[in-house]
TrEMBL record:
Residue intervals passing through the bilayer: 59-75
Organism encoding this protein: Aneurinibacillus aneurinilyticus ATCC 12856
Entry protein name: Transcription initiation factor TFIIIB
Keywords of the record: Membrane, Transmembrane, Transmembrane helix
Amino acid sequence: MDDQQAWKATYLMRGDKHMNRVEKATECPKCGSNELGKGMHSGYASMAPAERFGLGSKIIYIICTHCGFIVEGYVEQPKRFKKR
């Protein structure tokens, strides 16, 4: 499975209709491995709000430790992105 197919598999698995109840990732959609790890971007690689200057948040990733595919990513502090 190439990266495009893996993205489609992830989208179909979690698509828009399921975004209110995303399930915890347990398997890599690219290679099928269930060996997942956690990593993060922080410091200068943090995510910042687009509309205003302010503190950002670390980006947390769930990564397949077999093939390296990023299964999911999210910000650690989503409240920093709410409109004021």
